[in-house]
Amino acid sequence: QVQLVESGGGLVQAGESLKLSCAASGRSFSTKPMGWFRQPPGKEREFVATVNWSGTNTYYTDSVKGRFTISRDNAKNTVYLQMNNLKPEDTAVYYCAADVHSGVWNYWGQGTQVTVSS
User: Fold this and answer.
1) pLDDT for 73
2) Residue 32, SS3?
């Protein structure tokens, strides 16, 4: 059974940092893109960042560019999201995803809550 398990969320103050991890099990995603999404309170889920299979290409939504960094460790089947200079508007449930085809991500984690206080 394939599982993606996020960790590292929590409550922080504005300007602080958090690092999210997403560990995959049940199959290897070392040849697949992985990504992070988030769902703010009362809003739809939105794209945050994605990384290609080798970690050499990354893409971010404009609101997190320069503050967030996505990376991966294929030996550990894990993707990370380093979040610096957090803002209250970053408050959301953060989800990792793996293996995208035609814009559809096939595997999702259960989410981890990130709350940023002002």
Assistant:
1) 97
2) coil
